[in-house]
Amino acid sequence: MRTKRRKQKIKKLIILILIIIAIVFSFILLIKMVFKKETNLFNNISNYQTSYYNDYVEYYNKNKDIEKEDIVNFINYCKDNNLDYGHTSIDLIKFYKLENFDLNNLSKYLDYYESHKDSDLLQIVSIVNNDLESITLEYGEEITNFLLDLINEKYYIKNNLNRYINYYQKITNFDYQKKYDTKEVVTNVNANLDYNFYENTEVTDIKKDTLMIVNKHYKIPDNYTPENLVHIDDWEYGYWNLIRADVYEEFKKMSKDAKKDNVTLFIASPYRSYNDQKVLYNSYVASDGVKNADTYSADIQNIIRV
Predict the structure, then answer these.
(1) Mean pLDDT of 243-247
(2) Do the beta carbons of residue 44 and residue 68 sit within 8 Å?
(3) 135 contacts 166 by C-beta, under 8 angstroms
(4) Residue range 251-264, pLDDT digits in tens
(5) CATH code, residues 204-296
(6) How many helices (H) and strands (E) does the chain have?
């Protein structure tokens, strides 16, 4: 009887040991599966580096709303450039999640933030991406809002930045609290209106046809003549002079509409040839001087009126 009981106890003990072994083995397999699964989270991502694996996982566990590929690129950049991605004053991922973030500018964002900790992070990204750091330092923080509005203008030209600033200072007299219109600044500078008459003149783009700029800063080529010139054939509209056909037709429509309001329009000075303008301008200079003549006539060396 005792022998039978002993055998039953041994049998139960063996079963218990086998169960424990099975549990331990299953636990080991589970750990391996989890580890393999975690590794595969990054293994198939381009730029993955095995030596940074623990950093990827640690960051992923804290920031699961960020794409794994973005985490890999972000950690790689920080590691390769000795940047503390969990910076003591600001977590760099706050920049990384912003619109227009540029990974190549990450260190610049941090440098700017260190000296402008009260600045909005989105503004810092815009300032750095547009290379405005030195400008804000040169002109002071007061000009920052103007710059941020400026770079968002549709026809903003980066090469004109200093001219925009100089023009802005001129019209506001360095009063940065004064209301400003960045669209006006961009429009006038792009049209060279920040220059003195006939200063830095350029040949206009005649391919734009009726949309080309013609003023005391943009001139028409000396040999330019519109292809669709016609004579004004009705004394009701003007003298017997040449005018563009499309302009003439539109003028007729405008003239008829104006007459409904008892307003009479008359074409007194349409197209002039190069030689006609030269004679006219020189006569004005002879009688009134260059300075006065330039206020109401065009220097033939710079512009031809059409």
Answers:
(1) 91
(2) no
(3) no
(4) 999 999 999 999 99
(5) 3.30.1380.10
(6) 13, 4
